[in-house]
Amino acid sequence: MSVLLVSKWAALAGLVICVAGLGLRWRRSMARARPRDLAPARGSGMAGVAYAFTAGMMPWAKESTRHHWIAYLRGIGFHVGIFIGLPLVAANPWWGLLPNGPRLGLGTLLGLCAVLGAAGIVMRIREPILRTLSTADDYVAIVLVSAFLAFEAAALVSFAWMSVMYLAVGILLAYIPLGKIRHCLYFFFARAFFGQFVGRRAVIHPQLRVASPAMRAGEARR
Amino acid sequence: MSDMVETALGVFERQLGRPLEAALEVCARCGVCAEACHYFQAEPTVENTPVARGEALRRVYRAEHDFLGRIAPWWVGAERLDEASLTRLAETAFSRCTLCRRCTFNCPLGVDTPLMMRAVRAMATAAGVAPEILVMLADAAIEKGRSPEIFRDLFIEQMTDLEPELRQVTGNPQARLSVERPGARVLYVALAGVHTILPPAIIFTAAGEDWTLSLFEAANYGVFLADPGRAKQIAARIVDEAKGLGVEEVVLAECGHAYAALRWEAPTWFGGSFPFRVVSLVEKIDTYLTQGRLNLDPRAVRERVTYHDSCNMARSGGVIEEPRRVLRAIAPDFVEMTPNRHEALCCGGGGGLVALPEYEDLRLRAGKPKADQVRRTGARTVVAACENCRLQLGDLNRHYGLEVEISAVADLVVRAMRPADLNEEAVSVRAEAIAA
Question: In angstroms, rounded to a whole number, what is the distance separating the alpha carbons of residues B260 and B279?
């Protein structure tokens, strides 16, 4: 069995662990109670959720990201790399069909994303508060993702790195449900709850205020 | 494991619904929330970051619910709860977080740190390590609801004594300060103290409202304890009263947590919405202005005025533009603080902090960013639609020498009423009394 085949099996095993682990976590989360908000809405919960996943993610939407836009864009760039890099692994059998230009371009882009990830490690070590709060999990998570992006970038440039890339993605995928990278699953819950909150209470979009049935009844009585 | 720890963990497990689990799991520990917190702005230390507060509970969560946390606790920073760590957690949740939600709004992932701090408060309350004053205040309110007859006559007598002043100020000989009058359209729920009764009474009378006064006060200390059982019992006094009187609307005094509790939380405690609408006095005044029911002098408040957004009213309640519309209608030199609205800084008095003398020093230090913000506006009057904010702003005013007046929205509205609505001479006497 070739090294490449072994590494592909490792990646597949990692994928199975990842899907099963996140699936179990998803099931566990869905089994937990979700307290219903029974107060009459002042605004639209749906509009709030839409805001939370779109305009609310923009660097200018929050004071924190307006002040620290470089750090925020570093994080966004790193995550863009992940969202491009993982599907690209699945498309690996067709990499050979890509002309050199786009392939090298993708490699450069992922390489830059890997550098952004590595910068995150440096920031975590240099910044005293972040260093105090960090656990081994924080460092391992960012090292695994950055390494995966770097090896994928290398593999796009030279197919000789392919087996290392598969091994890296296998380890990364297996680690996702175990460590902090699983926040990829809870991100959707957390942003949706935030959006529901600000939407129903018309905190962000006062212009989207809606009259609840109780409010309409009150107006009618007057 | 001691009984105290077992009780706390039991409460934690009951609190662990989907929103809390998401808040515990989603944090990437990027630290971007730090500067959003007024504690950190005042004193930039690790323990003043929202992420550190969240981590304190996450360590416990990981020890109970995380695979790596159980087999290799050091890897993910897991830690079993014991009496010492529970006491530390409680101290953090009651003294270093005002539940203002500013960190949540500034987190790229939406980590709800106040939700985690409320879970800790609930654990501490059940385990008997919550601040005693809050427990006593909540229990006293519940007791008052059980035996209202003890103080009803005295309260009605006090209100009857206030009626001549109301009649004099409004120039309306029919003006009344009725308590629990059946058939009234509006039930107004004040706070302890005549300062939250007379100005609204003047406004209701001037607007021709069909209203009556609640026997109870709007404050709900069960909310600060994160104890839905106590909070529900306190709210039930008003809910039952409003249902019994058949009112269409409950208007709450200018009080942030009372509004958040009765408007947003209580329907969930009671299992459904109420047969009456719950609004804040500020929303009501804004409605009267829109309907042309108040005759206000647009130049009445000549000094520079600024508005402090109560976290419970604005970030957690959506009452953001209403007070501004009212203030712009009476104060030509109205200026905004920066930042404002849902980005406003917490004053440092929320979450029950103003009721806890043991944390006074910390509270005043944490209020420094707000004091600086007030000073930068150059305003002479700072308006807040929340009693706890006004108390804190008053303390900050003295502590940092701001030389400003702290006012409720209703007080300024009464100052701005034209003689057609009331007796001007009496208003100036009353305004002086309020200022004093």
Answer: 10
Domain ranges of chain A: 60-176, 179-222
ipTM for the predicted complex: 0.93
Contacts of A188 (CB under 8 A, 6+ apart): none
Q: How confident is the model at residue B428 (pLDDT cuts 50, 70, 90)?
A: low
Distance from CA of B36 to the nearest CA of A (A): 7
CATH code at B135-289: 3.40.50
* Residue whose token pair is 């509205």: B413
Tell me the three state secondary structure of residue B211: strand
B13, B16, B21, B279, best to mutate vs chain A, most A CBs in 10 Å: B21
**Dihedrals phi, psi of B31, to nearest 5 degrees:** 80, 5
For residue B183, report the phi and psi dihedrals to the nearest 5 degrees: 90, -10
Fold matches, B135-289 and B295-435 = yes
b (16+ CB within 10 A) / e for B143-164 = ebbeeeeeeeeebbeebeeeee
State residue A56's pLDDT score. 93
Nearest to B409 by CA among B378, B380, B433, B386: B386
Would the pTM count as exceeding 0.90?
yes
In the predicted structure, residue A222 carries a pLDDT above the cut 90: no
Q: Given this model, what pLDDT does residue B394 score?
A: 98
What is the spatial distance between Cα B201 and Cα B188, in angstroms, rounded to a whole number?
A: 9
User: Rounded to an integer, what distance in angstroms lies between the CA atom of residue A210 and that of residue B326?
Assistant: 21
Cβ <8 Å between A190 and B23: yes
Dist CA B183 CA B186 (whole Å): 9
A133 vs B52: CB contact, 8 Å cut-off? yes
Q: Are B69 and B280 in contact (CB under 8 A)?
A: no
Per the omega criterion (within 30 degrees of 0), is the bond before B339 cis?
A: yes
Which residue in B96, B108, B100 sits closest to B47, CA to CA? Answer: B96
> Token match 């501490």: residue?
B124
The amino acid at residue A151 is F
Q: Contact A190/B26, CB-based, under 8 Å?
A: yes
- Residue closest to A118 by CA, chosen among A83, A77, A175: A77
User: Rounded to an integer, what distance in angstroms lies between the CA atom of residue A192 and that of residue A198?
Assistant: 10
Q: Between chains, do B55 and A133 touch, taking CB under 8 Å as contact?
A: yes
Q: What pLDDT digit, counting tens, does each position of A28-61 carry?
A: 999 999 888 999 999 999 999 999 999 999 999 9
Model confidence pLDDT, tens digit, residues B222-233: 999 999 999 999
- Percent over 90 (pLDDT), chain B: 93
User: Residue A173 to residues A167, A184, B67, B70, B401: CA-CA distances in angstroms?
Assistant: 10, 12, 16, 21, 58
Domain covering B295-435, topology = Rossmann fold (3.40.50)
From A88's Cα to the closest Cα of chain B, the distance in A is 25
Domain residue ranges of chain B, discontinuous segments joined by +: 3-130, 135-289, 295-435
Going through B176-239 in order, the beta strands assigned E by DSSP cover: 186-189, 211-213
Provide the β-strand partners of residue B334: B305
Residue B420: per-residue pLDDT: 58
Structure tokens given for A62? 């929050």
Q: Minimal Cα distance from B26: which residue of A? A: A183
User: In this predicted structure, what is the pLDDT of residue B287?
Assistant: 97
Q: What are phi and psi of B192, to 5 degrees?
A: -65, 130
Question: What is the per-residue pLDDT across B195-221, written as a single tens digit (0 to 9) for each?
Answer: 999 999 999 999 999 999 999 999 999
Closest-CA residue to B195 (of B400, B394, B398, B401): B394
Of the residues A138, A184, A194, the best mutation for testing chain B's interface (the one with the most B CB atoms within 10 Å of its CB) is A194
- Nearest Cα of chain B lies from the Cα of A69 at a distance, in angstroms, of 10
